[in-house]
Design goal:
The chain is built from eight helices and eleven strands. It has about 250 residues and is of the alpha/beta class. The strands form three sheets. The chain has a six-stranded mixed beta sheet, sandwiched between helices. Strands 1-2-3 form a three-stranded parallel beta sheet. α1 packs across α2 and α4 packs across α5. The radius of gyration is 20 Å and the shape is globular.
Length: about 250
């Protein structure tokens, strides 16, 4: 089954077009406001066989996520398909800054590669996600973490640097993706507890070239290792270094 995350901020303008083009079997919305908007602007939303709302008491057109266990008595394994690894597993839409948003298709092999080839460890991690779940950061990090059995910590519904800092300490997150400005922002907060009270092991730093000062900044946050990466809808969907690249020192 293909996963297609959509930015909830664009639902009002684009949901009808998305649903007409994608013809989804399942639609999942985050809250009742999104469900109401989809019902109002999408002429064919009821064509979806399953409509799920992540609330406890949705309207009659939707099933509550909390009730799914009673609706599905026994899960069935997925068919491996005719070309394992080549089936489309993820479609990420571009932002639409310059034209109509375009869907970028990624195969299961794309997703395996980004977690197997780019991640330095495969032991259990707690990955902090700062962004909304529709953002490419959240999509990449969640799928990479799920692949090797890690835990994903969503700090807040929308970006909140204070919530991110609280989650780092409270849940002892060991991994996160960030840009240098975010790392600097975390360090500058009056509530920053000091790296001794954090458990950060690894920072995937993107958005720009990494300078020595950026690495030192991540070390002040308590990170053991730093690696450059760049996530984008049209990418793999992440672009980074292979860990055995001779340009890296000890895989970092």
């Amino acid at each position: 089954m293909t996963f297609i995350p959509l930015d909830p901020r664009s639902i009002e303008q684009d949901a009808d077009e998305y649903i007409k083009r994608l013809k989804p079997s399942i639609i999942v919305v985050q809250d009742e406001a999104a469900a109401t908007t989809v019902e109002r602007v999408c002429s064919r939303f009821k064509d979806a066989k399953v409509r799920i709302s992540c609330t406890t008491s949705p309207s009659k057109s939707w099933n509550s996520l909390s009730s799914l266990s009673s609706l599905v008595p026994e899960a069935q394994p997925f068919d491996n398909g005719t070309s394992p690894g080549q089936e489309v597993a993820l479609i990420v839409f571009t932002s639409g800054t310059t034209s109509t948003p375009k869907g970028c298709c990624h195969t299961a092999a794309n997703l395996w590669s980004e977690s197997y080839d780019f991640d330095p460890d495969t032991y259990t991690e707690k990955w902090l996600v700062h962004t909304p779940v529709s953002h490419i950061f959240a999509t990449n990090n969640s799928l990479r973490s799920f692949r090797y059995g890690g835990t994903v910590v969503f700090a807040s519904k929308s970006f909140d640097i204070h919530a991110s800092l609280k989650a780092l300490e409270l849940y002892q997150c060991t991994r996160m993706s960030a840009v240098p400005a975010l790392v600097q922002g975390l360090l500058s907060l009056p509530a920053f507890p000091g790296k001794e009270r954090l458990a950060l092991h690894y920072v995937s730093l993107g958005g720009t070239l990494i300078k020595d000062e950026d690495v030192r900044m991540c070390k002040r946050l308590g990170s053991d290792d730093v690696i450059q990466a760049y996530g984008m809808s049209e990418g793999a969907p992440i672009t980074s270094w292979l860990r055995d690249d001779p340009l890296l020192a000890s895989g970092q």
